[in-house]
């Protein structure tokens, strides 16, 4: 079964109906149907929350997070193995620490990152990326 790791970029594109939203919607429907594995690091979910809270409100951000929890996306809390790998990606520079967790989760799960965030170019030899357009 295919595994995709959602970056905050992907969920924000979905919620804001931006470019790539249809691709993310198809992936979510596939996960709900049990055809695809979707996962997201809780650090990235925090990015989704604060991005929405900044633009709208904390209450709205809470509503979006509740929606995410019902979308068939496994929310992964980092253990030392995930954190260590994320930190090793961070020392390469030019990528946010939160994105390092997404990449590390993709590496450990043998999945592809779903994003449009060009920061992931730094790790193109480490993890596959499904680029949202």
Question: How would you characterize the overall build of this protein?
Answer:
The protein is α/β, with parallel strands linked by helices and about 130 residues long. The chain has one domain (about 1-130): Rossmann fold (3-Layer(aba) Sandwich), CATH 3.40.50.1010. The protein has six helices and five strands. The chain has helices spanning about 10-15, 20-30, 40-55, 60-70, 80-90, 95-110, and strands at about 1-5, 35-40, 75, 110-115, 130. It has a five-stranded parallel beta sheet with strand order 3-2-1-4-5, with helices on both faces. α3 (about 40-55) packs antiparallel against α4 (about 60-70). The protein is globular and about 35 Å long. The model has no long low-confidence stretch (mean pLDDT about 95).
Fourth-tier CATH superfamily name:
5'-nuclease
What are the low-pLDDT stretches, counting only 5+ consecutive residues below 50? none
Tally of separate domains: 1
CATH class placement: Alpha Beta
Structural class: alpha/beta
- Helical content stands at 40-55%
- Biggest sheet architecture: 5 strands, parallel
Could you give the distance between the termini? 24 Å
This entry's quaternary arrangement is single chain
What is the CATH-assigned architecture? 3-Layer(aba) Sandwich
CATH fold name = Rossmann fold
Mean model confidence by pLDDT:
96
For the biggest β-sheet, the strand order reads 3-2-1-4-5
